[in-house]
Amino acid sequence: MTISLEKARQMVAETRAKARTMGLKPLSVVVLDAGGHVLAFEREDGASPGRFEIARGKAYGAVMLGMPGSAQMARAEAQAYFMAAVNGAYGGKVIPVPGGVLVKDVAGEVIGAVGVTGDSSENDAEAALAGIAAAGFEGAA
Amino acid sequence: MTISLEKARQMVAETRAKARTMGLKPLSVVVLDAGGHVLAFEREDGASPGRFEIARGKAYGAVMLGMPGSAQMARAEAQAYFMAAVNGAYGGKVIPVPGGVLVKDVAGEVIGAVGVTGDSSENDAEAALAGIAAAGFEGAA
Amino acid sequence: MTISLEKARQMVAETRAKARTMGLKPLSVVVLDAGGHVLAFEREDGASPGRFEIARGKAYGAVMLGMPGSAQMARAEAQAYFMAAVNGAYGGKVIPVPGGVLVKDVAGEVIGAVGVTGDSSENDAEAALAGIAAAGFEGAA
Amino acid sequence: MTISLEKARQMVAETRAKARTMGLKPLSVVVLDAGGHVLAFEREDGASPGRFEIARGKAYGAVMLGMPGSAQMARAEAQAYFMAAVNGAYGGKVIPVPGGVLVKDVAGEVIGAVGVTGDSSENDAEAALAGIAAAGFEGAA
């Protein structure tokens, strides 16, 4: 199963809606496909200019390693040089903190990831999970 | 003047709407700000996975050089090594063909760029121009 | 609002003037626009040759993340792998220590950053703040 | 002999003054030292954001190869793959066209380079030559 653009846009919209109810700072939200490639992205007014790279980095590491941001962070805390090496292997595109959330279909297969940045990493992840659920998928943060 | 997310989304939506009336292949559309940083992106169903980089590359060169895609292409046709060198200087992020369209405000100042890829470069540019105009800005293709 | 070259030059000159009154070592001072692109730079006699990259790195991270150098340093102290990953995502251009100072207009909007290197990071930041204030802007160090 | 910051600033100012008398478009002007490292840079109002990289690229190739922009262009016209390979070896930092002008002292030794971009390559070079001469050095364009 693949994520349609309609579903990707829905995840972005619902993540942003959740962030508003939570009162978060301006967010940037990306949706990647199962190959780690960009499907959709939006950067809210007031976010700093470099947020695309951070959002993508969170989601990219999740898809490429099959590990959500929290698991990547745990590994980085235990073995910083390993995640640094992973980053080198992936061209510097991995940001190993919460806010990179795997998207799974009903069969439990990874079909992409959502990356969120702008507030605390934990709030970023919570908003992403809500957006993924609203689109009928399962999130792993 | 800066491009709000609302205006960026409008340019993406109207570019895609124009493409439908033209009967184009699946498009990918990016909007960059005046510093070349991503504001919004959408990749239509059926587009190949690497389209974000192409769309951004068209728009990025336009912003950074202040030259729309057609002018970049003319320079590349006349002096291929110059555009190759520019690409090196900008970290390999420039795609010098039509479909990279400058966005100007009413005062004529460049406030960003739209990058479109998926159909012929000329059709990509035509769709982008329509999207930019629909959002109340001036396009330079 | 954008930073004119005249204002950028004034910030460089006033930062250097402040450094002289403080008795600092030879400084290098860069001014970036709101997209992280270079507006003006000067390297004082006696400074080592690689100072442009350090000055720009301090200012670049500030603009791209919307976080002054002190906040980046705090994050690097708490989570070194995060700032290392950010650096990868931004092409290795980030130096996360004081001396990268955000420039804000009267409305509080970030319009660029000043990066200073040559003395202690704290002195670098103090000189930058003085230069920014002298030009009529608000600095966040 | 090395280029002092005072002399570097003088070359920038005189290059810009010459451009005004010639009626050129907004210029960006960089001065590099004998090691190819940045001493001073200014980007005039109205220039596109990516001009630092182009100005530096012109001057960098000149210093690193000991060949002014016109000689680099001649080589690129004759053997594009050679200049492309040079660019790879120098990290993508070379722009092999006029506007990269060597700065020599009275003994004929290369002590740095000026890089100018914004108008035609030939006009860029002419302005740089005037700026170098006004500072008491010899230019080779």
From TrEMBL, chains A, B, C, D:
<protein>
    <submittedName>
        <fullName>Heme-binding protein</fullName>
    </submittedName>
</protein>
<dbReference type="InterPro" id="IPR005624">
    <property type="entry name" value="PduO/GlcC-like"/>
</dbReference>
<dbReference type="InterPro" id="IPR052517">
    <property type="entry name" value="GlcG_carb_metab_protein"/>
</dbReference>
<dbReference type="InterPro" id="IPR038084">
    <property type="entry name" value="PduO/GlcC-like_sf"/>
</dbReference>
<dbReference type="Pfam" id="PF03928">
    <property type="entry name" value="HbpS-like"/>
</dbReference>
